[in-house]
Amino acid sequence: MHNLISQLAEQLKKPLPGTSAHILMSPAGRVNTEEAIQTLLTPPRTSAVMIILYPENDQLYMVLIKRPDYQGVHSGQVSFPGGKFEEEDVEFMRTALRETHEEIGVNPNEIEMVGALSRIYIPPSNFLVYPFVGFCKQPPSFIIDTEVDRVITVPANILLDDTIIREGKFLAGGNLGFEIKAPYFEIDNERVWGATACILSEFKHILQLVKAE
């Protein structure tokens, strides 16, 4: 398992696909991140998320969370643990570690940093998100915060099964938004779409490269 993590770390040091991977799971007309942030009238807020990986049953598992229903942009959506950058964090990686601890109770000392994926802009909430990949040597114990409805754990290899990619209708911008059609991953009976699906698409690309070695 550590050999696989080492391979992932090496791939994450190389040039990342970014937009070319994001667009595969984006709705039609979505502007790529680097173009979007050049045209913003209001500077984006910044945040960071964590893809936690861990070994179980001789497989590499990953962690997702489902947000509760609320009057907000990301109501009821599946995402990664993470949140808004605070000045005391100093760097985005620390934001991802802190928020992961706050939301699902995984101690930063248990997480070995593997690398980072491409940043991605979320128009409805004006957030620029920095995704990180971390590895826990043991299956983590979760302590769920009120900002999390449930934790979803699945084998990472599920991403390599193209049959879990579907297309559906969603409310962009939450309960007060407008309907769009977008691709999504069907994971554990949940529709994973939007920025989370784009991040997963890039991580899938990295996994494919590692498997091909």
In N-to-C order, the SSE pattern is HHHEEEEHEEEEEEEH
Main sheet makeup: 8 strands, mixed
Which range does the strand content fall in?
A: 25-35%
Tell me, what's the shape? globular
**CATH class division:** Alpha Beta
Helix content: 10-25%
Number of domains: 1
DSSP strand count = 11
Uncertain spans: none
Radius of gyration: 16 Å
Task: State the end-to-end distance.
Answer: 15 Å
- The CATH H-level superfamily is Nucleoside Triphosphate Pyrophosphohydrolase
- Which architecture name does CATH use? Alpha-Beta Complex
Mean pLDDT: 93
Instruction: Quote the CATH topology.
Output: Nucleoside Triphosphate Pyrophosphohydrolase
Secondary-structure content class: alpha+beta
- Helix tally equals 5
Description:
This protein has 213 residues and is of the alpha+beta class. It has one domain (2-33, 43-212): Nucleoside Triphosphate Pyrophosphohydrolase. Helices cover 25% and strands 33% of the residues. It has five helices and eleven strands. It has helices spanning 2-12, 19-22, 33-38, 92-104, 194-212; strands spanning 45-56, 59-66, 78-79, 82-84, 111-116, 120-122, 127-136, 150-155, 165-172, 178-187, 190-192. Strands 1, 2, 3, 4, 5, 6, 7 and 8 form an eight-stranded mixed beta sheet that branches. The chain has a three-stranded antiparallel beta sheet with strand order 9-10-11. A hairpin with a 5-residue loop joins β9 and β10. α1 (2-12) crosses α5. The model has no long low-confidence stretch (mean pLDDT 93).
